[in-house]
Amino acid sequence: MISGPAGPERIGDLRKELAARGLTGFIVPRADEHQGEYVPASAQRLAWLTGFTGSAGMAVVLHGRAAIFIDGRYTLQVTQEVDAARFEIRHMVEQPVQRWLGQALTAGDRLGFDPWLHTAEQAETLRQVCERAGAELVACADNPLDAVWHDRPPPPCRPVVAHPLRFAGRSATEKRLALSDSLQADHLDGAVLTDPASIAWLLNIRGDDVAYVPLPLSFAILHGDGGVELFMDPAKINPALVDHLGDGVRLFPPAHFTTRLAALRGRIRVDKSTAPMAVVQVLRDKDITVDMAGDPCALPKACKNPVELAGARAAHVRDAVAMIRFLAWLEAEDDVDEAAAAERLYQFRAEGEHFRGLSFPTIAGAGPNGAIVHYRSSPATNRKLLPGQLFLLDSGAQYLDGTTDVTRTMAVGGAGAEECERFTLVLKGHIAIATALFPQGTTGSQLDMLARRALWARGLDYDHGTGHGVGSYLSVHEGPQRISKVGAGAVPLRVGMVVSNEPGYYKAGAYGIRIEALVAVEERPLPAGGERPLLGFETLTLVPIDRRLIVVDLLDAGERAWIDCYHGRIRDEIGPLVDDDTRTWLCRATASL
């Protein structure tokens, strides 16, 4: 844990350290060496310095001013956690760090950064900004913030275990050899793997180094012949794991990573979106040809095999049982707050087979807290669920056979006309994605507007993506597939990919609405006369949508039929798995519109 609140002494100590190193300023990203969404306590530098606990952000500290940059998910949260007297608060899209630096830097300034915490692309963008201002971007040999973080926790060191073939579906040897063929086809001699999720998928291993994602933090080098060099703390390794990895995987302590990088030859793939600048620099210093492209594991990992898809379906059935038991319990309770609701849902999930924990911190937002997209209840913000308000509950779990993520927005003792109308507009977008048919090669960005169309027609929108990829007992936020506006959702959707379908609407200070289910991309029959193979979505999540919030007159016949069919499926598949009282509630909650 990070001890103590962020205070003026921390930024003051950092400024003194920077001055001693001859630096004008320093960049503090919310990142570790792997660019992961969840980072260990030892890498939570942004939270230690500023108090901001969101999953994306960056701070810049100069001698005379400082700023924190966040995206649209955290515009409300950042104001609650960060002292605006010490940090200017900026939206990283509308007021990007490049623009702020361009105005704040002057000729002769020296801006420091940690090359292990920034990608090569990020570092190049910062270099150009500094150059235009007449300043210098300085790669620090060690992180100056770490020098003043005196009670910094040690790096995690938890055991690594094999992920059984009955859940993985393909052996690690099969995956390594398939990637070897892929590398050779691209005329590559190897690839550097810096994303622990890729390494976990490739080698069929799992760990417990970070919260919510079963990852062992590590680096790896994949060679053209399919051999792998794995860089991991020896304390994490046991004889059973060595046997599982086999002769094709050589183990090294992390300290050997840069030495082995420098020994590579030929043309080496490095993931442009996750690899640290430090890795790229080591290779370039040795005149090794660097192929800056995508992680070779990303697409194979995203396209789930039949065993993984079967596991996802089974996990979602168990998750639905827990969610439906919770919803029935919630409706019968009169005195519940956000924290109690989240805890009760956890207890229901923990009773399920193969349960291994949550897949992210539960977002339980009552009333105005629901408008904070990535809200997390705390003793200071915990609210009771009051009649006449909406309750937004976004939660998920990790099971050995799958990862879940579901959001439901519920009426607590009724809701107003505005809330019901906007809930129905969000529902129309959800149904539009769920029922979409699209030709092979279609990207998530091409589908995104389907989810927003009904909202746009009323002058409304939401400031987050419509869908993210989901792993198989891995990260609940997995790339490269997404459903979002142009740029982030530019990867064509392929059979076996799992993505979320989660349009929303948020009225600051009042309420939030989100309806989320996970869907799997599948082939669909080609209509008579059709010329291009079609894809569609199989909805995996089996949790009722609150009928009390639906304005039926705003739905067309097809949308009403979809709701009734979806609820009928839930009733048929989950009804036999719950007790009589819960089944009675479920029948009422899934009655035809």
Characterization of this structure:
With 593 residues, this protein is of the alpha+beta class. The protein has 3 domains: 8-148, Creatinase/prolidase N-terminal domain (Creatine Amidinohydrolase, Chain A, domain 1), CATH 3.40.350.10; 161-300, Creatinase/prolidase N-terminal domain (Creatine Amidinohydrolase, Chain A, domain 1, 3-Layer(aba) Sandwich); 303-589, Alpha-Beta Complex (Creatine Amidinohydrolase), CATH 3.90.230. The chain has 19 helices and 28 strands. It has a 6-stranded mixed β-sheet with strand order 4-3-2-1-5-6, sandwiched between helices. Strands 12-11-10-8-13-14 form a 6-stranded mixed β-sheet, with helices on both faces. The radius of gyration is 25 Å and the shape is globular.
Short overview:
This is Aminopeptidase P family protein. With 593 residues, this protein is an alpha+beta fold. 34% of the residues lie in helices and 21% in strands.
Q: What would the CATH topology of the largest domain be?
A: Creatine Amidinohydrolase
The CATH class of the largest domain is identified as Alpha Beta
Computed over alpha carbons, the radius of gyration is 25 Å
Low-confidence stretches: none
Strand order of the largest sheet: 4-3-2-1-5-6
CATH architecture heading of the largest domain? Alpha-Beta Complex
Shape: globular
Structural class: alpha+beta
Which strand-content bin applies to the residues?
15-25%
Family: Belongs to the peptidase M24B family.
Organism: Magnetospirillum sulfuroxidans
Pfam families: Creatinase_N (PF01321), Creatinase_N_2 (PF16189), Peptidase_M24 (PF00557), Peptidase_M24_C (PF16188)
InterPro entries: Creatin/AminoP/Spt16_N, Creatinase/aminopeptidase-like, Creatinase_N, Pept_M24, Pept_M24B, Peptidase_M24_C, X-Pro_aminopeptidase_P
